[in-house]
Design goal:
The chain has five helices and four strands, in the order αααααββββ. It is α+β, with helices and mostly antiparallel strands. It folds into two domains: 2-66, no CATH class; 72-116, N-terminal domain of TfIIb (Single Sheet), CATH 2.20.25. A hairpin with a 5-residue loop joins β3 and β4. This is Transcription elongation factor A2.
Amino acid sequence: MKYKNRVRSRISNLKDAKNPDLRRNVLCGSITPQQIAVMTSEEMASDELKEIRKAMTKEAIREHQMARTGGAQTDLFTCGKCRKKSCTYTQVQTRSSDEPMTTFVVCNECGNRWKFC
């Protein structure tokens, strides 16, 4: 099954009208049959598709970093990675109630995360 999927992927990429460079490189010998057999979908993608994927990855990273748990902003903590003091923290009772709360801290500058009790 894996072999069939890989063959289908190669055929699809070679037939793609938006990716004539791949087809041209295979036909002129710049890409050997051995190379195309082991290429990933990222390597076969057109430049346009690579840019779209890169932009989508950047956007997903940005959204993930912005999706903070709505904690409080403070300058009480110093980031161990970038040494800045702009942080957001939340406190959660992760263990039994007779033990201290766990504090989760996120650096607003570099996105570094850490926790302590």
